[in-house]
Structure formats: C-alpha cells, structure tokens
Design goal:
- Chains A, B: Keywords: DNA-binding, Transcription, Transcription regulation.
- Two copies of one chain form a homodimer.
- Chain A is of the alpha/beta class.
- The first copy, chain A, is built from 14 helices and twelve strands.
- Chain A folds into three domains: 52 residues, 434 Repressor (Amino-terminal Domain), CATH 1.10.260; 118 residues, Response regulator (Rossmann fold), CATH 3.40.50.2300; 143 residues, Rossmann fold.
- Chain A has a six-stranded parallel beta sheet, sandwiched between helices. A four-stranded parallel beta sheet of chain A has the order 7-6-8-9, with helices on both faces.
- In chain A, helix 6 packs across helix 13 and helix 8 packs across helix 14.
- At the A-B interface, helix 1, helix 5, strand 1, helix 6 and strand 2 of A face helix 1, helix 5, strand 1, helix 6 and strand 2 of B.
C-alpha cells in the first residue's frame, strides 16, 4: 500500500468496506480473513472494495483476536543511552521485519516512574518486555518478576530463573591482556573503575589470570581524570608499566593524554587498550584507542529474538547467556602490522 | 491495580468477566463502561466480578471505540542518539502522565527502513508521529506529508505548512559571543563546522552581528582534530585571538587541548565557548567548557504537548517555532565571579 492510498483512506474502517460492498460487517471481516461461508463472488467483491478504498486492516483489531499486539516494551534506566542505544538498535533490527514495534521507556532510577511505564505497557497489551540498564549487577527499580507477559533481561540483572543476556567481561578482558602480551608488553597494569562493580571484578580477575596474579590493578572512577591520576601514581615509581589495560575508554583517554603530556610515546613506549568502544571517546583519542567492543547491538538482536520466541510460546531455557566481546584495533597498541600478527596469534590460541 | 493482581489476572478478558458474572459479553462491556440499560444490581455484580478477577480494561479495545491508541511514533535518523535522546526524554515526560507511550523507530538514512517503520506505526493506529533527526535543514528519508495522522517535526526539516520546532541557533550564538565580550575579549574568532549546515550559517551570522562584520569565521569538520588544526592556523600569525567561540563542543575540546599544548592558558589568556553541552565532551575538557545548551529536552516536551493537542483535534498553528538556547557556565571562559557578572550584564542587555 502506498502512502497516497493511506492518505486517501483517512482511516477507512471495515464498516466502510462493508457498506460499499453491500454486506454486513461480519461478512466483510470473514471475507478479508478468508474465513466463514460465502460465495467466491462475494469474497472477491469485498476484497476488491477493500483494496479500492485503501482499507488498512487494523492491527489492534487483529491483535484482539490473535491475542498479540505486536509490540514490545523496552525499559531502561540508562539515561545517557550509551549502553541502551546499541541494544535498542539491535532489538529493532530483530523485530522490525516481524512487524513488531518497540516502546522505549526511560525510567531513570525512579520506581514510581517505572511502575507508570509498566502499567502503560501492560495496558497496551505488549507481547513482552525487555529490561536493560547501565550495569549488569543492578536491577531496575521495578519488579518485573510476576508480570503476565514474558520478560528478557539484557545488560541488567534479573532474577535467577529469568532469561538474561550479558556480555562476557572475562573474555573481553582476556583478549585485551593477550593483545598486550602479543605486542611483547610484559609490565602490565590494569587501571579500572570502582571495585563495587561486578564487571570491574570480572575484568580484573581475567586480567590477572593472563598477566600474572601479582600484576597491579588500580581501582578508581570511570573518568578521564582518574586516568590522569593513575599515570601520576604509576610514574611516581621508577619503572612505569609498558602496557596499560583500562576499564573503560574514558579512563584510557585520560591515560593516553597524561602519557603524552609526560613526553611518553603511545604506542612506541607504552601500549594502551580501552574498553567499551564508545566512538566519541575512542576515535577522538590521540592516537585512537584499541579497545574492547561489548557487541551490544548483537546482544540486543538476541534479546529481540528471545522475546519473540517467548511471545510465540516457544520454549526458551532460563539462565544467563554470555555473549562474546570483540577486540577493535586502532593505534594505541602498536602498528597495524603488529596488530594483525597479534590478532592471528590470538585467534590461534582460541 | 497492583502487580500481584495483574499477575493473577493472566490477561483476564471481558469474556471471563461475563462468564463469571452470568451475563453476555455485550452486557458486561456496557456495565463496565456505564452505558446501556440494566438493573443496578447487574451493573454492580459485573463491576465487582471484574475487580475480583483483576480484569484490566484493554487499552486496544478502548482505542477501537475511542479512535485513539494512546501511542505516538518517534522517527529518527540520529543513530548516535546525541540529539534524539534528550528530545525523547522530553517527549516521554510530556506524555507519560497522559498514558501515552512512544514507539522509537531508528531509521538511519534508509528510506526503505523508514517506510517499514511508518507502515508499522500506522498499522498500530498511532495517534501521531514526531519526526526528529540530527540536523534542522535536512528531511528524514521518508515522506510524512500525506499521512492520515498528525505529524510534528522536532529538530529536523518539515514541509512549509507543518508544525516544526527548532532551537534558536542565532540567539545561542549571540549569547556565546556577548559572553566573550562581557569578559573583555575583543579579538574574537568563530571556529565552526561545514558551511553547508544552516545552523553553521545562522550561528556565524549571529556571531558577526555581535563581534563585528569583519570578525574571522573558520569552517571545518565537526571534530576535535579540526579544533587542533584551527589553533595551528590562528597562531601561525602574530596576533592570535583572545576569545574563541566554537561551533560544537568537540571542536572546542580540540581548541582547548591545542592551546594547552602550546602553553597558552585557558581561560587566563584565551576564553573558549562551545556549543551543544554534550556532557561527555564539555565536562571532561580541561578546563571544563562553558557552552550553549540547545534545551532539547524542553523542545521534546513541547513536541509532546503539540502532538497531543493535534491528536485531540485541538487547533495548532502551523509554522516554525524557535525555542531559546541557554548559556551553561563552566571554567573555559573565566572565573565564576567574572562569569556571574557577565551573566548579569547579558541579562540587563536583553
């Protein structure tokens, strides 16, 4: 159907189709749905009338009979959208071809606002809800465990028996560390965020598993300022590190800036790897950051596929699904040549 | 209704209420809607049954009779979400209390994807569509001019007879320039983005109107790298500027970094003002950026209020509505004391 037809239709209803075709509304409905008993001539006349009028079958009316609304609710407390936007893009990609639309509900950390949004979504008979947030070890401020619709948790904590998707912090941190080792870096340090985050602990453990159990880990804020401060601490001692794995790209940018201001060349003297691949930060760093991408768009796609399966009543195993991160090569670690060789080595190790 | 009741309800339908109350579906519906003829005893029995079963009146069913779905579609091609996220937050704020939910449809610059999303939204009988994007002088790659539902354009170009909201680039640029002048800066330069952008032209014109018609404007990319390059150009001459108004925060960050690396103190020797108030950039700059905020959240609120009015059939004047920007004070322009005095002067001038 073209837009012109839609416009002409001005919300043509089945009543109009029935009137013009000279049948009852019930007959018109049956004709269009290929159900009921009538002559083929009548069925054809109704269908032709519907086409001529530009009748758009009403999704809500269909939903009422099929018990599906072809809508999904996405709840998030990530106001920056840093994590939610790629998740959302993936969800949309998985659902748009199925005719499913997504309600985006930003609830910040406001339980009352969360309840209003959940009520509105239930009221509109969503087929399911995807909950997402800004960290994997915190729940949204609203209880979704007893809703009459299925729920998938993506990049936020859910109940033990829920369907939950998270990115693989350990594998991502291992890849970053192995990449530094593959560049011949041996004095490795991990500069990361607050140790109250599960992701910080998981990444630190994976870093030490590859770099050595006595390798240094410095905990601080998720900020550029902390990157500067960490470099000041590290270079207050005689032997600074030759490889720094940072807990996020903002810390990495601070580290790279602080090193340049000390006259220390990145990557010739020190290699740096970030985490997140937040392009506004990682691509603008001088040199641009080699970093870990959590593949949040793919995580969103998988969340979309799972909520569709659940909405259609297909069996889905509960539990936590861990999706792999990927290393994104830029210049903060070494030359492309070295980087590519390192990639091959990492691949061979897998 | 509490969540527990919803859960118990497991999508209780009006059929269930009718069956338990011992009436027809039609009678149950009329009883709950306070229409039709029946004894008060019957009406009360139906209502009590509905409450006892935890019946949730179906928004879709109500929409079918009221011709309202209480949903709004938001179309955007701003994949970064830099502009769309605050607009979206404002829209949600304006609509959530009215029980209206928002479909977010990211269409990038893909006309086919745009059409799929618009079809899906019309199919779900949205009450209206808000179109938004990443620049005010470009249309989305999908024609919304002949749809059977109202459309509001917010931070993207619409047809001449449409309802359109934009931020006031000229007033924002004027405030930035006046602020530099209020700090006693007299050798002003504007370092901005590509001159193919209407916003770039509007800001440059407003800058020259305040700073003088022969004040220098340098056009380049929307990037930190361009900020570095511009400083190299400006300081290749004998007398560098003492005040720089930048077209966005990324350029401003590049300018501030480049000045620091030349040993030029910001703000003691040169004052810098950005544009956008994109916090990840403006707050992390050393020193943090004084900048212009386009008030996109308020623009979103206004778009939400307008689309509601249109959906309810209230009269709304077509045309372009220009919303004011505001100056956000940080440290790149001067001390708080000076900044506050400047603010007062600016206020007195208005």
């Amino acid at each position: 159907m073209r837009y012109a037809d839609v416009a002409k239709a001005e919300r043509i209803r089945i009543y109009d189709v029935a009137r013009v075709a000279g049948v009852s509304v019930a007959t018109a409905s049956k004709a269009l749905n290929d159900t009921g008993r009538m002559t083929e001539a009548t069925r054809t006349r109704v269908k032709q009338t519907a086409t001529a009028l530009g009748f758009r079958p009403n999704a809500m009316a269909r939903a009422l009979t099929r018990q599906r609304s072809f809508t999904i609710g996405l709840l998030t407390n990530d106001t920056y959208g840093r994590f939610t936007l790629p998740v959302m893009a993936g969800i949309n990609e998985a659902l748009v071809d199925q005719g499913v639309s997504v309600f985006l509900c930003g609830i910040e950390d406001d339980a009352a606002l969360g309840k209003i949004h959940v009520d509105a979504m239930l009221d509109k008979q969503v087929d399911g809800i995807i909950a997402t947030g800004k960290r994997i070890d915190r729940r949204l401020p609203v209880d979704l465990s007893d809703l009459p619709v299925p729920v998938v948790y993506a990049f936020t904590e859910g109940p033990a028996d829920a369907v939950t998707l998270v990115s693989d912090d350990r594998q991502g941190a291992r890849e970053a560390t192995e990449h530094l080792l593959a560049h011949g870096r041996r004095r490795l340090v991990h500069v990361t965020g607050p140790d109250s985050f599960a992701s910080v602990q998981n990444r630190a453990e994976a870093f030490r598993a590859s770099a050595g159990q006595d390798a240094k880990v410095l905990y601080g804020a998720w900020s550029e300022a902390w990157g500067h401060e960490a470099v000041a601490k590290l270079w207050a001692q005689l032997n600074g590190p030759d490889g720094i794995f940072c807990g996020n790209d903002q810390i990495a940018r601070g580290v790279v800036d602080a090193l340049r201001e000390r006259g220390i060349d990145v990557p010739a003297e020190v290699s740096v790897v970030g985490f997140d691949n937040w392009e506004i930060v990682s691509a603008a760093t001088r040199p641009p950051l080699t970093t870990i991408d959590m593949n949040l768009k793919e995580l969103g796609r998988e969340a979309g596929r799972l909520i569709l399966d659940l909405a259609e009543g297909k069996p889905v195993e509960p539990g936590i699904r861990t999706l792999p991160c990927k290393l994104v090569l830029r210049q903060s670690c070494g030359s492309d040549r070295v980087a590519n060789r390192a990639e091959e080595e990492v691949l061979q190790e897998v």
